[in-house]
Amino acid sequence: MQETAAPDHPRHHFHYLKTFPGSFVLIAPTEKATRAVVFVHGFGGDSCGTWSHFQMLVDELEEFRTWFSTSDLFFFQYKSVWERIDSSVDRALKFLDAMVPKPEEEEFLVVLNPILSDEALELVRLSALPASRVYEEVILVGHSEGGVVIRKAILDADSDKRRDRSFLLGAGIALFAPALFGYKPSGLLGTLANFPGIGKVVDAFLSATPAYQDLNDLDGLLRPIQEETERLADAKAYPACAARILWSRQDHVVKPGKDGKYRNDTRDYLDGQSHTSICKPNLNYTDPISLIASMSKALQ
Description:
The protein is of the alpha/beta class. Helix content is about 35%, strand content about 15%. The chain has eleven helices and ten strands. A hairpin with a 7-residue loop joins strand 1 and strand 2.
């Protein structure tokens, strides 16, 4: 078990991002945060539950506290079931444009009403940030569908000449059980899908969702993303074309892919975790936090 930090040390503080409903940021307790870590959940997940315990443990674990103390943590929310992958990628890029490498100040303004209800008093506007930020690096973290969204976002960032997104092409990429080779239901839906009769209903429901259709479109979406990522890696060697991935050996939801697929990635396989728990650290399972904290070395 990891040793936890003293309860009185400076901690990240929460700020809700109104322009991006459901998304929030944990702001580092320092005037100089050098790093932005952006978390992208998967199919049916959300910005909070998918990454449960991350929000607490980054300030609790002594081994990683120094690294995270200079990192702002962004948790991005999107419509992971009822929108196409391309639409989710567009949302993700707009979110990233607003947050890195320099966060837009308007996103962090906090309006305080005066204690006295005097119309002559002006509203007090403060920034949730301790100081203006200009990040030196960004790390993109994805689970399941989030891995597909991130990989497609990197390709779009390179191909869109209307806006300079070169900063993203140098990002570190950490993925947990990404749905890069297809997806099938898990949990209750996965159980119901195996029952006669009910299984057809579940399959019909899932097949009606745009994201599920895309995550099973090997020829139209997933394979082209892989091939273009490999081509870009060969041509320009962008760091963002190579991911570090954690797979669960007990994953029955996504396929890890055959050797040679995404040949620039680094893969590790873990026992004792499921598709949903692989990205959720706890005091006895700190691999997700360790993976992210190690990404800076890959950027140097």
